[in-house]
Amino acid sequence: MSYQVLARKWRPKRFADLVGQEHVVRALSNALGSERLHHAYLLTGTRGVGKTTIARILAKSLNCETGITAEPCGVCAACRQIDAGRYVDLLEIDAASNTGIDNIREVLENAQYAPTLGRFKVYIIDEVHMLSKSAFNAMLKTLEEPPAHVKFILATTDPQKVPVTVLSRCLQFSLRNMTPQQIAGYLAHVLEVEGVAYETPALSLLGRGASGSMRDALSLLDQAIAYGEGDVKEEGVRAMLGAVDCSYLFGLLRALADADGPLLIREAEQLAERGIGFDSALSEMAVLLQQISMAQIVPQAISPDEPEYDAIFALAGLMAPEDVQLYYQIAVHGRRDLALAPDEHAGFNMALIRMLAFHPLNQREPAPAAVRAQAPLAAHAAVAGREAMDQARAKLAQQVGGTRTPAATPRAQAAAALAGSNPAPAPVPAPEPEPEIEPEPAAALPLPAEAAPSIAAKGAEVADDDADGREGDVLPPDLPDYAMQDDDEIYISADELPQKPAAFDGNWLALVAEIGPRMGTVRMLAQNAVLKSWQGGALVLAVPESFRHLASRDYQDKLRTVLAEHFGHTLELSVTVEETGAETPAMRDARNRHELRQEARVVLENDPVVQQLVREFDATLLTDTIQPAQE
Amino acid sequence: MLYPWHQADWARISSEFSRLPNAWLFTGMAGSGKLEFAEHLAQALLCDQPLADHGACGQCESCRWFGSGSHPDFRRLSPIIEGEEEGKEGKPTRKLAQIKIEAVREIIEFSQLSSHRHGQRVVLVEPAETLNPAAANALLKVLEEPPDDVLFLLVAHSPQRLLPTIKSRCRQYPLARPSHEMALAWLKSQGIARAEIELAHNGGAPLFNHDPALTALRDQFVAALAAPMLTGMLDMAELVDKQKLPLAVPLDWLAKWLHDLAGLSLACRLRYYPEHEDALSSLARRARLPELMRCQSAVTTLVPYGQHTLNVRLQLEALLMDYLKVFA
Q1: Hey, is the C-beta of A465 within 8 angstroms of any chain B C-beta?
Q2: Which ipTM did the prediction report?
Q3: Do strands B150-156 and B121-125 pair parallel, antiparallel, or not at all (unpaired)?
Q4: Nearest Cα to A55, choosing from A106, A123, A140?
Q5: Is there a contact between B155 and B125 (Cβ–Cβ < 8 Å)?
Q6: How confident is the model at residue A402 (pLDDT cuts 50, 70, 90)?
Q7: Following DSSP, what letter does each residue of A475-531 receive, concatenated?
Q8: A Pfam family in this protein (chain B) (predicted)?
Q9: Are residues A162 and A299 in the same domain?
Q10: Domain count along chain A
C-alpha cells in the first residue's frame, strides 16, 4: 500500500473522532438514537471541515449490521466496505463532474429499487452546488418524498448556489470553521501517533495558517514534515508558510511615514528575496494599518499585551489618521490588482508607490487636499445655492444681452458656481481686479430681438455641457477642446423658437445659434465653419483643415436641406477647406464659457465667506475646477 | 530537462518519493520553468529504471514514450489553443484560454481505469489557474481521493486565484526563483541577444518567448513612450493594431513603463527598462503624479480584457491619451 497523505489517512471514521462540530454530531446522534430520521440532509461549510466525513459516518450509522446507531461498530462487513469505498448501497456521486439532468435521472431511476444488502440506500451527492438548474429541478420530487429505503445526503461549500426549493426539502446543518487551538490540538495528536517530533509553537502557526480548515491543516502538516525532513520545527514552518515577519512590515511603514522611497522599494526587494508572498504581505499590512488606526482613534481597544504594542503606537504617532485610512484603502485595492500587474513584485511596488504618491510630502499639486476641504464648502453651497439660483439666472441673461452690470451679489454667484459641480478649492492668490471682458460679438452685431432668449438659454446649456464633458473626456491636449464638444446633450425644444421664415442677414453666428438645435448631425459642420462670403443666395463656408471630414458632400447636402427649411427657399451652398482665422460658432461658445468661468472664479475669490474659510480653516480654492452652474 | 536553479528543489522532492502525496501544487513566479520541473518529475515517476537520484534514465521504453509525448499513463490537462485550427484568412483568433469540464471528465475516466504499465499514472494540470469554475469543481473529488497510483501535478504561478477547495487538497511546493546571475548565465548560454535587457524587461524571469520581431516593435513602442507626442501615440496605436497583437502585449509594456516611471520619480528605482534610464528620469521630473496614478489604474482595469476581442486600437489610443495627460 502506497503512502497516503495525512488528510486521507486521518479522516475520522466515527463521530467521536471528529474535532469540533459538536452541534451537528449531537443532533445526528440523538436522531439516530431515537430513529427519528430525516430523509435528506444538507451539510454546508468551508473546505475541509468534515462534510464528506460526516456524510460517510452517517451512511455507516444507518447501515451498520449492529442496527441503526450513533456508534457504528467499524468491524462488520457493511462498515468495512463503506470505509473501503465499495459498499453497493452507498452511492457517492460527484455532482461537480456529473452536472447534467441525464446523470441525475439515471441516479433517480434506480432509487425505487430496494437496497441490495443494507437497510438503506444512501446517496451522498457531493459538491452539489455545481448541479445544473434542470438537474436540481429533476431531483425535487424524489427529494421530497423518496421511497422509505432511500436517504439523501447532500454536501456543498456553497449553499447560496442551491435553489431554495432544494434547501427547503433538506435538513440543513452548517459546519463551523475550526479554531486554531482545536486544529493545533488535533495536529499534536496526529504527530504523536505518527511518531514525528514537533514543536508546539509550530503547530499553532499551522493552526492559524489553515484558517479554520482541518484538511488545509493536515496538508500543511504534510508539507511541513517534508520541508523539515522529518521534524516539525517552528522556524521551518514559519519559512514554509511564508509568514510575514512583522518586523518587515514595520520597516515598510516607517519608510512610508518618512516618505523614503528608495528605502521602501529596497525593503520590498528584501521581501521578495525571502520568498514572502506579496499577497499575504499586503493583507498583513492592511491588518497592521487597521491596528494603527485603532491605536489612533480608540487607543484603549489595543490590549497592552499585544506583542507589537510599542511599535504600533510609535507608528500611530508618526502618521496622520487620514493617511492611515488612505494607505489601508490602497493596500486592500492593491491586493486585488496584484494579479493584474505585470508580475506580483511590480504590483506590490506599485501599491507602495501609490501610497507614497499621496504622502503629504509628495503632493506637488493640491488636488488631494481638495478632498479634505470639500465638505464644509459643499455644505455652504447647498444652503446658499437655492436662493442664489434666480439671481444668477437673471445675471446671465443680462450678460448675454450685452448690458453687463458689475457683479452685484458676489456671494450668490459664488454659490451658484458651486452648487451644481464639484467645489474646488485651490490656493487663493490676491484678489485680482475684474478682468476686462470684451463685448459679446453676438450682442455687438445687430441681433434680432427674438433670438436673445435662445442665446441666454444656450449659455445655460453650454455650462451644463461642460460639466458633463468633464467626467470622462480623453481629449488629446493638442486639439482645441471646443472642437469635440458633445452636441447630443444640447437640446432645446424646437417649438419654443420662432418659426417664421426669415431672410439671412449675413450673421452666421446668430443663425447657427438660432437654428443650431434643429440641425442634427450637420450641427458639427455649422459650429466649426466660418462664413466666407455671402452673395445673393449663395453661401460659401470655410472649415479649418482639422475638420476636413465635415466638408463632405453628404454633410453639405444635409446642411442645405436644413437651411432651406429655415428660410423657406433653397440656397446655394459650398464648403471649402482653409484656415481663415475668423471665429467659428464653436470657438465663440468656448470663449463664452471660458469667460463665464473666469468670472465665477473672480467672484468666488472675492467672496467674503470663501475668504473667511481660507483664513480660518486654511482652505484652498482649486480654481481650475470651478464651473458656472445652472439648474 | 531540469534548469540549473531547480537542482536544490529536485534534491528535496526526490527525498519525498517515499511519501508521495495525491497531488502536488507547484507555485513560483511565471517564466521560471515550473512546467519543465513538473514534466521532469512526471517522467521520473514513470521511468522503469530511475537513476540513483530518482531522475529519469532517458533510455527505457517509458522514457522514450514520454519523450515522444505518447505515454499511455500520462495525461496533460492544459487549455486548448483554438486559434491554430482556424485557417480562415490567416487571422489568429483572440480567445480566452481555459480548461473546460469535458477535459476534466476525460481525466476522471482515465484515472478510474487501471494503468497500462502497472505503475504510476500521472496527470499534469498546467496552468491550474486556467481551469474554469466548472472544471475546477469537477476535479475536486478525484483530486482528493484518486485511485491508487494516480498522482496529480498542478502548476500555478498565482495560487491565490485557485479555488480554496483545490488548494486545500494539494501539497503545495513553492519552487525557487532563479537568482539574477544564474538566470543571466543561462540566457547567455542560450545565445540570446541583449540578455541583460531582456531579463530586466521580464522582471528576472529567464523563460520568455523570444521573438526578435516583437522585440523590435517593443523598442519602437517604448521609444514613442519616451517622447510623448500625440502623433507618436496615434502612430503606435495603429502600428500595434496592424500586427494583430492581443491587447495584453502593449498593456504589459505600458504597465511596466508606468511602473518604472513612478518608481523613478518617487523611489529612484527602476526594474524593467534599465536601458531607458535617462529618458525615464527626465520624464519623471515632468510627470504629474495623480495623473500618472490615474493612467496606471486605467491600464490595470483593462488587463482582464487583454485577450478579449476589444478593438485594440481604440483602447490603446484611449490609454495613450491618458498617458499624454501625465505630462500635460
Answers
A1: no
A2: 0.81
A3: parallel
A4: A123
A5: yes
A6: very low
A7: --TTS-TTTT---TT----GGGS--S-----S-HHHHHHHHGGGTGGGHHHHHT-EE
A8: DNA_pol3_delta2
A9: no
A10: 4
